[in-house]
User: Fold this.
Amino acid sequence: MDEINKIFVVLVTVQNLVSSGWLSKRLKITIYRSIILPVVLYGCETWSLTLREERRLRVSENRRLRIMFGPKRGEVTREWRKLSNEVLNDLYSSPNIVRVIKSKRMRWVVHVACIGERRGVHRVLVEKPGGKRLLDRPRSRWEDNIKKDLQEVGCGAWTRSSWLRIGKGGGHL
Assistant:
């Protein structure tokens, strides 16, 4: 997945800034949100993620956060140790990357629902393509991910009204 590898290219250019002990944690988070995340999340509204890809994205994000915040010295043993995922989540205090992707995907669905049948994007979303599928396990489709996201939010229906209801709530899961 090229999207996951983009973070490494961006991070190499800002590695010294992010791992520097001279910058505050707040400034490091700002750099992460304004430089690294936009590159990683470019076009994520249309991604069809599998569970394996979601896990890889979470692991990649935690790795970047560990580089940003560095190790921590234990209070009792006074030995250096890497930060656990729970501590990273407390320090970062923002939704994880998979949650952000799902939120952006839901906003995109609301946008497509609002533009209606006037545009080609709506036809691509609603119409079914012709032809046969390959023999094998069917790949996860964008529509399947949206249905799963809607179920997580509590809207089982795949209708324009449910899209708009989620959109008025800010589009967050």
Summary: The beta strands are 72-73, 80-81. The CA atoms of residues 112 and 124 lie 10 Å apart.
